[in-house]
Amino acid sequence: MGESLVTTQEDRTAATPSPVADGRTVSGSTRATPLSRMRRARPTLRSLRSPRRPRLWFEILLIAVSYWLYSLVRNAVPEQKAEALRNADWIWSLEHTFGLAFEESVNRAVNSVTWLIVSMNYYYATLHFIVTIGVLIWLFRRHPGRYAAARLILFATTAVALLGYYVFPLAPPRLMRGGGFVDTVMLHQTWGSMASGNFKHMSNQYAAMPSMHIGWSLWCGLTICVLATAPWARILGALYPVATLIVIVATANHFWLDAVGGMACLAFGITLSYAWYGSLPHRLPKRVQRPGAGRLRALRRPPARAPELRRGAEPSQAGARGSDPAGD
């Protein structure tokens, strides 16, 4: 018996909640029960997992703080130089075993064309951030309902990469001893790269596995290919991760196996986002209402007129009819 019935003075029956059903004691004090806690938690969890329009100030703050924490943790990984160099030798020998150790040939061939290798150095140093931020802004403006799910993929991809930096420190090919690679960044003095000048002391040089250049570029490319409508945009989205793979190999910043690690991190991010939202980003609604927009619209809506007035009856006549006794 979850509810008790009470009859009012006008002979109308109203339902009042049972003292036991809503967690209240007979004296009126509230007692939190496991069932009541679960009922309160469900709407909160459901609201967090449902698509909603992002807030600009929150997203700017979240991205800035998240990247700062990522850089802090990444650079806090001890530079295990000896182990990183041993791991690089092992990766290099493994690729030779597969017959796929082509990085040195690509590195030397591209380095022979000065304008090309310098362009690739600046590509590596800048587009990694510019394109990713550009795609986030595009999602925020054009696909607000899908933004949070896509952003979660990017954040989860980046977060799980930190585990790889701790577990498997790896020197990039350009820092290998006797590997025959050309350090194109140092040779051509590329400005702004985290591997040159004083910047190299601000970044962990032995965190090459997995490659977040591939993880981020593949996220950008897939997002554009799936959500963009213009054919030229989809083509650029498909070419961007391919071009990034060529760049990271030609500049000797990564082995191609580092790219495989970046793809694995992205797969983890996609899986986590799907598990949380129950759908992939492109299957979510493109646009959603702002939080509280429905309540605000309801408050602004003018009140409906009485039925009698809508039919053209005079207020005095309506009142007179309402006062007539039922038996007359």
TrEMBL record:
It is found in: Membrane. The chain crosses the membrane at residues 56-73, 122-140, 152-168, 206-228, 235-253, 259-277. Residues 90-270 form the Inositolphosphotransferase Aur1/Ipt1 domain. Keywords: Membrane, Transmembrane, Transmembrane helix. Residues 1-38, 291-328 are annotated as: Disordered. It is a multi-pass membrane protein. The keyword Membrane applies. Its main location: membrane. The keyword Acetylation does not apply. PANTHER family: PA-PHOSPHATASE RELATED-FAMILY PROTEIN DDB_G0268928, PTHR31310. This is Inositol phosphorylceramide synthase.
